[in-house]
Amino acid sequence: MAKCTKKVGIVGKYTTCYGASLRKIVKRTEISQHTKNTCSFLAGGAKTYNTTSVTVKSAIRRLKELKDQ
């Protein structure tokens, strides 16, 4: 039987030379960095469009909705 790969977690890239307490601090910060932002207040303004065509398309749709109301 072959030995399985050990599951080391998110701070497995930092070896034992850094110490457990420092790795715990890094683990907390990296977990908070990689979590998805679920705040509904920020979600609307946080999105930025990469292309101008998408920006124009959304602006046209928004203006059409305002005109219909």
UniProtKB/TrEMBL annotation:
<keyword id="KW-0862">Zinc</keyword>
<dbReference type="GO" id="GO:0022625">
    <property type="term" value="C:cytosolic large ribosomal subunit"/>
</dbReference>
<dbReference type="InterPro" id="IPR002674">
    <property type="entry name" value="Ribosomal_eL43"/>
</dbReference>
<dbReference type="InterPro" id="IPR011331">
    <property type="entry name" value="Ribosomal_eL37/eL43"/>
</dbReference>
<dbReference type="GO" id="GO:0008270">
    <property type="term" value="F:zinc ion binding"/>
</dbReference>
<protein>
    <recommendedName>
        <fullName>60S ribosomal protein L37a</fullName>
    </recommendedName>
</protein>
<keyword id="KW-0687">Ribonucleoprotein</keyword>
<dbReference type="Pfam" id="PF01780">
    <property type="entry name" value="Ribosomal_L37ae"/>
</dbReference>
<dbReference type="GO" id="GO:0006412">
    <property type="term" value="P:translation"/>
</dbReference>
<comment type="similarity">
    <text>Belongs to the eukaryotic ribosomal protein eL43 family.</text>
</comment>
<keyword id="KW-0689">Ribosomal protein</keyword>
<dbReference type="InterPro" id="IPR011332">
    <property type="entry name" value="Ribosomal_zn-bd"/>
</dbReference>
<keyword id="KW-0863">Zinc-finger</keyword>
<dbReference type="GO" id="GO:0003735">
    <property type="term" value="F:structural constituent of ribosome"/>
</dbReference>
<keyword id="KW-0479">Metal-binding</keyword>
<dbReference type="GO" id="GO:0070180">
    <property type="term" value="F:large ribosomal subunit rRNA binding"/>
</dbReference>
